[in-house]
Structure formats: structure tokens, C-alpha cells
Amino acid sequence: MSLIKIKDLTKDYVNEDVVTKVLCGVTFEIKPGEFVAIMGPSGSGKSTLMHILSFLDRPTGGLYEFEGKDTKDFSDAYLAELRNRRVGFVFQSFNLLARTTVLDNVKLPLLYSQKKNYNQLAEAALADVGLSHRLDYYTNQISGGEKQRVAIARALVNDPAVIFADEPTGNLDSKSGNIIMDILQKLNNQGRTIILVTHETDTAKHAKRIIRIRDGIVVSDEPVHDRIFADSNNELIK
Question: What kind and span of H or E run contains 5?
Fold first, then answer.
């Protein structure tokens, strides 16, 4: 069974009498355990597509099935539950809470779950990204690369079905970006589904498959034959 299945997906934005078509009939499937990059230039519709796939927005038309269920029947409350329980997010701008410790940032999604062992789960997630030594640091005391690793730990902490990474290296230098891609590749090797949104070819080639979007349609969907493997020489994830 596919984790994600979309068919003829459309998205329009209406401003007074002006209709802007952003997605114009997008079709593809993503199976559990894949590492897929969605790639396209600015204005191609890739960010809108990610927002729909991650339940931050709804499509105008077409089919979107998640774990075999048609999402058009999902209530807003259930979508919010899915965002917390089944989806992890990693953003370009990190989106961490200021004046808050690394550990408390990672614990945040657990506050809305049924789980009780907050500290243990958050500490395990931080260990997965090599930040056990930063638990009590505040977010203004760590580097940009470390902030993104905290964001990945926060995305992992609820053991989601899929992790969405939206331009995760966009605010980082090349070395820090390489570490982030290394972590994502290792998480995928452990069986986690990763969907990466980027406009950068070299970043997209860290994935196993690239879906290219232009003007709201899929122009190609191919495996990566010249895949780039991050060479950070780190042992962050065992």
C-alpha cells in the first residue's frame, strides 16, 4: 500500500474575481520508506504541494489518500492530530522557540500526544542527531547547523510516518548542510520516509527519487542515478 497517493490534484487561490491556478493535475504515489525530493523553481507549486501533503492546506480538487484513506473526509481536528502524530516537519528557518532549551523544544510535540515519558523520548531523539551534549543549552546558544539538528529531533520525537523537510539546508553553510543531509540519509536507511522540498539540484540528488514540478504540473518523476552521499565523516546516528 502507498503511504501517499495523489491523482489529478489541483489547487486554486481566489482573490476577489481573480483565480490563480497553482497545481494543475498532479499525480504520483510515495511508498513507505522512500526518500523523495520534490524539486522546482520558485513559483512552480512545490511548496503548495508540500503544504497539502503535510495537511497544512487542502486541495481544490483531485484525490489525496494518506495511508489508504481519502483525506477529503478528514475533519480539521483530525488533520491537526495527523500533523502532530503522523507527520514531522523540518523547515528552512528552524522554527524553534526562543529563550527555550534544546530539550524543551524537542519535547513540544509530545505535549499534545498521549505519551508520558517526555524527557526520555526527547533525549533519545536528540541522541539520534548527536546533540546529547546540548540538552540544557538555549536555542540562542547553538549554531545554525545545531538548530536544524534540533528541528530534526523535534520532527522525530513522535515517531511519524513521514518527515517533510522544506529547504532544510537553505540557511546553512555547506559543511552544516552536509551534516543535515547525512542525518536525513541515515534516517531513511533506518526505514523512515523522507520528503524533501528544494530548488537546488545538488540537495535533491541526496534523495533516491526526484519529482520535478513546473507551472503546477509534474514534468518528470525519476530515480536518482547519480546520487550524492553526504560525506560529513560523522557518527551522529549509529
Answer: strand 4-15
> How many angstroms separate the CA atoms of 66 and 46, rounded?
18
Reported as a single tens digit per residue, the pLDDT across 60-95 is 999 999 999 999 999 999 999 999 889 999 988 899
In tens, the pLDDT along 112-134 reads 777 778 899 999 999 999 999 99
Residue with cell 483531485: 62
Cα-based torsion angle of the residue sequence 87, 79, 3, 64 in order, rounded to the nearest 10 degrees = -140
Q: Which three cell numbers stand for residue 3?
A: 503511504
Distance CA(235)–CA(238), nearest Å, equals 6
Radius of gyration of the chain (CA): 18
pTM reported for the whole predicted model: 0.91
Amino acid 237: pLDDT = 47
Q: Where are the alpha helices (DSSP H) in the chain?
A: 46-53, 76-85, 102-107, 118-128, 144-156, 174-189, 201-204
Q: State the Cα–Cα distance between residues 159 and 49, nearest whole angstrom.
A: 23
Beta-carbon contacts of 71 under 8 Å, excluding residues fewer than 6 positions away, are 55, 58, 64, 65, 79
Q: For 208, phi and psi rounded to 5 degrees?
A: -95, -15
